[in-house]
Amino acid sequence: MEYVVSILFTVEFFLILLVMLFLLFKEGLSFKVGIAFATLYFIFIPVMIMVFTGTLELSKADFGMTKLGDVVLIDNLYESYLLLIFVFTIILYLYFPMIKGKSEIITSFQPKTKYYLTIYLVGMTFIFLGSGLLKGGNWYDNRHDFFASIGPLALLIAFVLNSSKILIIGSMVFNWLQKKVEFVPFIILLLTFTVIDMIFSGNRIYLFCAFALIALILLRKYPVKTFLLTPVILPLVAVLGYLASIFKHMRGPLFYKGIPTVDIFISSFIRAVGLEPPSISAFFLGISESVNVNVIYKVFENYNDFLYGLTFLKPFFFYLPRSIWSSKPESITIIAANTYGGASMVTTIIGEMYMNFYLFGILILPVFLWLLDNSLSLFLRKYGDFAKVILFIFGLLIFRMPFSDELLVFVFLILILAMFSRFKAIKFKF
Fold this sequence. Notes:
globular, two-stranded antiparallel sheet, disordered C terminus, mainly alpha
């Protein structure tokens, strides 16, 4: 039966790849393209390794103390079929048409990059000074303790900060697409910002968003050149991908004594390479965060304490302190970590659907994605081509990150856009 599962996974992979390329070349970036890319990247890279090797190995260096384990295909056929069904519902959403509407934009939109950057710098400075990261210690524990000490204000800062990151990345890409900046300066600025953010925040997701944006835009603009330059591009991508992958081993000791020196950076790098030596399988497992699939299989295997939509309701109650509501809904990553061990565990939208709605999530997921896509598109439609970049990023983030957190990030992003933008009346016609 494992051969049947392997064939079905392969068929689904090509169905998603084909619809992603069709949408990309026909309409450009979109929320759907983001969801499709995220599914191929975070689900199918690990799954294809499991299909070809028979096992999806767990990184023991990172998750050896958790309740997770290797996923052996022949021993996890039920979970594999369940994953196939959930992915199939995503395929249904990807192939289903969206609501078409026209908007009359009176004033062209220009992103206010310097304002977004100011918000980002103020937020990062507040976190660094408040958590004492400049004085040293564990970067994760310091920030967690600081956020816990200031309550709902911490969440507000985090959501606004993440909104500003998306706006900065989106602005850079938009300005390049509008030919306001040349490609080389654009690449330097974008990678500089995302790499520095990764180092100081410990989060690689926005660097990933930047890589995904560049790759797909270049593929759409220059498909033949991109194909011909693949032998040159792949080694560079491999090196950068490996560095981003092993950074999870560097971020702990990097700020242990405060602002890292060159010697500390080098020693942290050597330590990270020792924990994750270069290899083909480890490389693909690392860059795709394959543990996410291990988590999904574990959830399918034995999760029974279903949440009945609680994590999707969190955005409506995030401002209430736990002193008022001690059982206020947590993010799905925290719930998964409390269940299986670790500080935080990513379930992706598939695992979050299952943990909330059990098998009913199969019916809910495609409708949920379709409604969410139309809703986000409606809120951003007046921002023209800039909206396409932002929607693509949110497609990636909502698939990979807790839904409640990313929805709040989107809300604050809309508020920031409205705050620094002046529009004339916009009339929507459906």
